[in-house]
Amino acid sequence: MRKKYLNIIFYITITFIIDDSQCNNDEIKKYPLLMPNVRPNVPELYLCTPVKINSSHTYYIVGYEPNATMEVAHHILIYGCKTPGTSKAVWNCGEMAAASNNNVEFSNVASPCADGSEILYAWARDAPTLRLPDGVGFKIGKDSQIKYLVLQVHYAHIDHFKDGVTTDDSGIILHYTSKPLHKLAGVYLLGTMGVIPAKSTEYMETACLFMENKVLHPFAYRTHTHSLGKVVAGYVIDRDNNWIELGKRDPLTPQMFYPIKNNVTITKGDILAARCTMSNYRDRDTLIGATNEDEMCNFYLMYYVDNDQTVDMKWCFTRGPPSFYWKTANLKNIPDREASML
């Protein structure tokens, strides 16, 4: 059965089909969203593969079970899309690999999504299975804007595949139900651009005013940097300028979604903020970018809305250092020491 699945996916876009007549709506089922035995051929390669969701049904993802190791996959993202980046079964979806003149097999380059892109899940550093709280799920399919799921895997190194025989089926096993859920999950991403000067410690900071008429209930967070990150911290700043910690983590520990530190809601007029404390031991400046030689500063906030739609604005990015800092944004009561200390 597994062999048939892996062969088919190279030729058609798989449809996510559930026979609801043969299962209880309350039953949690599993679907393997995996790379179809690919063989990465250049370092820093990003590969994407799609799955089309059965348009006659609505489903709710309630858990993510990794089928990956950090020895092979640097990180994995799952995107929800209205339309995938291409009709290909597998494609190059990273800028760095696109620049390689030797990458003939994966020369077709496109973004993960052509339309309606949002991040549903992120994994790195051998993070374990994530199960959402009871009654919470990511809605996909018929009654959702998400018509496709796209799996993206970043292969930073290809030592594992140098024998020319070994292939990869890294990915995520989705736990889902067709039982209607009223607490709809979403992910809000905070991040920065910017540069970290050589031989220095730098703060990469972001802050955005939340202006939608919705009430967000955050329940999990995830941090992500490459090798220079020391601490990543996220906050909600209320209208009285109180900084309430959402989560703080050493990003070089397993990059899983951890429970939110403080039980808080986010409403219109609040500010979402994050800081990555970076220590650049290198003799060169390091910029934000896609490869292991670059850096990233990301704070993922997973939340739910009760009997409402998820947010329209799904990310908050700033230009980062040296152009943007919390202080230059005139934020008050900045927890300067606490935001960089574990």
Overall description:
With 342 residues, the chain is mostly beta strands. The chain is 3% helix and 42% strand. The protein is built from two helices and 24 strands. The strands form five sheets. Strands 2, 4, 10, 11, 13, 14, 17, 20, 23 and 24 form a ten-stranded mixed beta sheet that branches. Strands 1, 3, 5, 7, 9 and 12 form a six-stranded mixed beta sheet that branches. The protein is globular and about 50 Å long. Residues 1-23 and 96-104 have low confidence and may be disordered.
Topology (elements, then pairings):
Elements: H1 2-8, E1 15-16, E2 29-34, E3 45-53, E4 58-67, E5 75-81, E6 83-84, E7 91-92, H2 95-98, E8 113-115, E9 118-124, E10 130-131, E11 136-141, E12 148-155, E13 171-177, E14 183-192, E15 195-196, E16 200-209, E17 217-224, E18 229-237, E19 243-249, E20 258-259, E21 271-280, E22 286-287, E23 298-306, E24 315-318
Parallel strand pairs: 1-3, 11-14, 14-24
Antiparallel strand pairs: 2-13, 3-7, 3-12, 4-10, 4-11, 4-13, 5-9, 5-12, 6-8, 14-23, 15-22, 16-21, 17-20, 17-23, 18-19, 18-21
